[in-house]
Amino acid sequence: MALHWVVRLKGPLSKDYVRAETQNLTTEGFYCFSPERFKLGERLECVIDLPSSPASSDCQTLHGRVTVLRVRRVPERFRHCLPA
Known about the structure:
five-stranded antiparallel sheet
């Protein structure tokens, strides 16, 4: 499903979260572009803000841990298009 929700990711040695946006989401996980490179198999802290409804700015926050299952390099010329 093509849901574009904000996701924040943080590696085990990182101080701050990296903001990304989901490109698609399933019951098995999500796919997103991140401005930071993560390693295949790396475990990350994850925070997703789920909108309560399309017309509301309220949201529910989901905290969890995720494992990086796929890594794809994006050509430098497209990096400006990634969510910041």
